[in-house]
Amino acid sequence: MNRSRRTAGTSLVEILVVIVVFLIGILAIVQIFPGGFRLLGLTRSQSQATQLVRTEIERLKSRADQLPDRVVPVRYLRANGELVAIVDSGRRTNDLGPTADGLTSIGDLVFNGDNLGPWRRASGANMVNRVVGEGSIVPAPRPIAGTISDPAYYGGLLNLQYGPAVFNPEVAGNSADNDVIFSVYANDLALALGTPPDPNDQPYRDYLYYCDAPDQPGATLYVPQSPNPVRFRFAATAYVRDAGNVVRTVELLDFVLTVPAGAPYTYYAIPLSTVFAVPVINPGDTFIGVAFDSLQVAPLFERIGKNVAFNPANPYEYKLLDDLNAGASNANIGALLFNPSGYKYYVPNSEGRRIPLTARVNYNVYDWGILRNDLRIPSSMSESIRLPLGTLKVKGNADTDGLPYQGLGFVVADGAGGVVEQDIVVQDSETGGVVSPTSYVVDKSMGAIRFLDGNTGTPEMDVTIFNAGDWTPFAVNDAAGRTVRVFYQSGQEYQLQMLKAASRYIGVSGVPGSGQYAFGNLADPAQRTRLYFANSELGRGVAIHEALVEADFDGNGPLPVQIRKVSVSGSIKAPAASDPVGLPYFDLVDVYGPGVLGWSTIDENGKNLGYVVRGVRGSSVAVRVLWNPAKFTLNGTDQQNMAAFDKWGANWRKSLTETYLQKGGTQ
Prior knowledge:
This protein is mainly beta. It has four domains: about 120 residues, no CATH class; about 110 residues, no CATH class; about 120 residues, no CATH class; about 120 residues, no CATH class. About 10% of the residues lie in helices and about 35% in strands. The protein is built from six helices and 48 strands. Strands 2, 3, 15, 16, 18 and 19 form a six-stranded antiparallel beta sheet that branches. A five-stranded mixed beta sheet has the order 8-9-23-21-20, with no helix packed on it. The longest helix has 29 residues. The radius of gyration is 29 Å and the shape is globular. The N and C termini lie far apart (about 105 Å).
């Protein structure tokens, strides 16, 4: 019997034919359902954004004592040769586009011939980047390099929550310009109305300053003098009247006020019309006074050289540990070291009671697109830590604009006496130093970081840190549990931003600015229930401690209507199309329904208390994530590049969550 030597099976040609047919089918499905696949990608990006928001909110809750007072858009100008910061109250947080008319082939925005810098730092969330009042009581001192006996590197360390911060590299030394861009100041002095009393009649109080006739063009400030010149951070809101007789407000956020040396028990007089002059106010405008409650005068901390020893007799000293970016970029990683004398140093408040010295910082966030994650070094090399985002940017790869990605935009020490710009930076939160790249590896496609043991012969996790003193490497023998901060950027231009309602809102006449409110026409039934805010406050939550409200509180309508003293809270809504005021507002109708008549100028006994509302405070913190999955290229004229950029900008996506959170600690 002859048996066939052929074995049943499938030939290679048949397998290839099946594969080709299968691929053709898959491609057909992809062409039929492209929207579905794009939707899956967007859903994944939305989930990542939501996770970023939740992580950031939890981080803020754990650091409520360091929350800033607010986050606002600003513009800078020079007045009498001095740099000043003005709040741009007209800009809404959803205005993501820059004011520019061109984009160069190297990615710099241009407006009227002026170079505005890289597009990434002048668009998106970076349009609202001024953090106001972040800080806390001066931290407890500790050695951050060397030993306790080294007076230059023993102090209270404060890491800014949203560093890197913008720091002006063109201006050297301890200039007033730097102290506007990056302002570090202490507790506010107490304010009194009128002129200073004769020291022979009343005790002299060096923590008290005066303002005479604040609501008049002749408003004058009186600040205490000392044997040495003293510099203060000054902020105030002025009323100005334009040529059309319209009254509006101008908020001066940061101004360096230098008070010359004077004899004991004397005050330095400053006519506020000289501060609020052109160009702080527009040509043709007339200064008519200031909002008394808006005045703020606080001593500035003096910035000293990094290697200079602190003066034990001057608690108002600090230094910036990052000295590597001067002349290289306008960024600073944001590690501040305060004079140890400032810890447990007490200053008097408005009641004369002694309270701890507080350090507060006003700064511009360098780039909200630099993401920050705080984590602890694990005890084992086998443990990998996932960052909230995968697909991190890689240095040298094509960036969103088609140009090679250069890194985070600021340099760090390389451990060999030089500097390098990296796409991942790990900062040591305990010293302000930088963890050596030899102590970790990052899977940038997955967004995972794993720390490496520098000495596998011991059971501890050893890592190398470039110390913030001279940036030389030193080994930390047991780094497990040590807190570090990871800086990185995402391939879809994710930007993580904190937006905070003002800690306190002040009432003004005319058009309100940031951190201010105003009533409309109380004779107009539509406006009588509303409290108006600046465009920059849209969406924020507010709580009113005390308000006089006229309403049908029992709901039996239309009578009886009662006047009550109440506490109310809610959100600031978008302007109503039918409202001629045209500003965001809080509405009593949202609280009490249509039975409310509005605010009342008298209480339930018919008495005029001199106020309608008191204690208007911000009650919310919002965290939003912006991202843009699109790409564009810079291969045309400046105008063509700008058109491509504008088209790309139409693809911004947003995820926002608001939570009720207020700042803790002593102000």
